[in-house]
């Protein structure tokens, strides 16, 4: 089954043009190779690689994954072989991929972000850079970059100067004002925003009176976080002009449409790939059918349509029960 777009599903993220708006989320798709026997990678827009750091990381103690009724809690702890190993052994293979490859950068200081960005962006096999300033799993002395507008601005300003490739900034939902952080990232030069990373969570084993994750806390993904993610996309879309890659619990075409209507120009699929690797293909077909059924030519025609008449979340008088 191949996607033959009868409707225009393409999206521009800065200089990066994708024929399809379906992007595979960091940490959930390897580098694409792992899924190539299940799905023709021509039928996805891009893969965001697992976040890579300056030094190798062993990650968190196990258990690192816990299933909850409608979401997955993870505390992988950014396990990765470090950027130098990655460049030497992995990146060369990416030129064989028939979809775009987006490198994901993580770090524990502004210098880390700069170093890894420079190293990855220098390689032709990598089409764009996403900076993961929002991982809630990794203990660090300072505040998480994504939770502080000034830190967000500093890191984005620095890495912006290091590459002409599309720069995507991935935001955390674990903040009080995601729109404010989004504005800082846009002003500092981001080409696009990935909204959202995982939501902090915890599960406890009632037999042994211990948290179920080795790291005690983790990041929740999957359908449980979808309404949180849709709201975040809506709020960010009201605040910035750059494109948004919506993500958080997308499993079906209807889920994806919610994100486009809230203001996303592209979507990312993470956890759903673990249970059904055909989800990205089904969604691309579903989007095409939806547009053709409404006699619309292009996906971009529906972006943000649910936001009409609203100028921002400040209009609300509260939404408590
Ligand atoms: C097991 C696992 C590992 C992840 N690793 C990363 C990572 O390394 N870097 C990153 O930016 N996001 C990481 N994420 C977050 C996903 O890319 C995605 O933003 C999030 O899970 C929400 O989307 P989903 O509900 O479709 O999974 C990870 C998620 C999971 C479930």
What would you say this structure looks like, in words?
This protein has 321 residues and is α/β, with parallel strands linked by helices. The chain has one domain: Aldolase class I (TIM Barrel, Alpha-Beta Barrel), CATH 3.20.20.70. It is 26% helix and 19% strand. It contains eight helices and 16 strands. It has helices spanning 83-89, 110-121, 149-160, 178-187, 226-239, 253-262, 272-275, 279-293, and strands at residues 11-13, 16-18, 22-24, 46-48, 65-68, 71-74, 100-105, 128-132, 166-171, 192-195, 199-201, 204-205, 210-211, 218-221, 244-247, 266-269. It has an eight-stranded parallel barrel with strand order 3-4-7-8-9-10-15-16, surrounded by six helices. Strands 5-6-14-11 form a four-stranded antiparallel beta sheet, with no helix packed on it. It has a two-stranded antiparallel ribbon with strand order 1-2. The longest helix has 15 residues, at 279-293. It starts with 10 loop residues before the first strand and ends in a 28-residue tail after the last helix. Residues 135-140 have low confidence and may be disordered. Bound molecules: flavin mononucleotide. Flavin mononucleotide binds next to strand 6.
